[in-house]
Amino acid sequence: MAFISMVFASIFVCFILIGWLLLLIGLILHIIWHMKKRKDKEVKRSLKICARVFTVWGLIQGIGPIVLIAAIILFNS
């Protein structure tokens, strides 16, 4: 029983870490986007879409579960 709970906990932690990685990629793409915009270079539509998608996906997957668990703990106290 303890083994399977540790497996589930490890899967949950990996899920959150992948979300943080996606968030980091999204933030890097946003930085590239704004640096190109500042230098008056053309910013491709695919860069804008990928930056937004990775940032939102990373927020939902990396931050969302932590906020959900914190809210459950706060409201159950």
What is the makeup of the main sheet?
none
| Averaged pLDDT | 95
Total count of helical runs of at least 4 residues: 2
Fraction of residues in helix:
over 70%
Describe the oligomeric state of these chains in a short phrase. single chain
- Report the strand count: 0
Radius of gyration: 17 Å
Low-confidence stretches: none
**N- to C-terminal distance:** 26 Å
What is the structural class?
mainly alpha
Topology as a string of helices (H) and strands (E): HH
What fraction of the residues are assigned to beta strands by DSSP?
A: under 5%
Which descriptor suits the 3D outline? elongated
Can you tell me about this structure?
The protein is an all-alpha fold and 77 residues long. The chain has two helices and no strands. It is elongated, with a radius of gyration of 17 Å. The two termini are 26 Å apart.
Helix-strand blueprint:
Elements: H1 2-38, H2 45-76
Helix pairs in contact: 1-2
Observed structural traits:
77 residues; 2 helices; mainly alpha
Summarize the structure in short.
It contains two helices and no strands. The chain has helices at residues 2-38, 45-76. The longest helix is centred in the first third of the chain and has 37 residues, at 2-38.
